[in-house]
Amino acid sequence: MAAAASQATRKLKVAELSAKIFGNSFNPTGARNGNYILRQNFRGEHMLRYYLSQREINLMKTPRLSRLMGEKLYDPDEIDRLNVIERRKARGKSTPKKGEGKRALLAKKKR
After folding, report:
1. Pfam families in the record, alphabetically (predicted)?
2. In a 3-state reduction of DSSP, which class is residue 92?
3. Domain-by-domain residue ranges, the chain?
4. CA distance 44 to 97
5. Four-residue CA torsion sign, 57, 63, 64, 70
6. Calpha distance 13→59 (Å, rounded)
7. CA–CA separation, 41 vs 57, rounded Å?
């Protein structure tokens, strides 16, 4: 019994020295601690680069900026949207003007 106990304490001392040498934490009881979180890479810089600052958000509002500066900015999404609307109007499939919809036509027939 005494030999097994001394062997166990020797293993603990070796593990403690090994942890000290290699910069690991020594946790003989296996208690939970936050070392796994501390070992992870710091994410702060990455998150700061991912989310836009308030200044960048304001610069993204280009239509308002272009009106203030008097410039015409090229927006391919807006041009595509206008082309789709134009094609739908040519086929007679666009949205009706105010007061010319289905409900307005039904109200006119009832009169």
Report:
1. MRP-S33
2. coil
3. 44-96
4. 51
5. positive
6. 61
7. 28
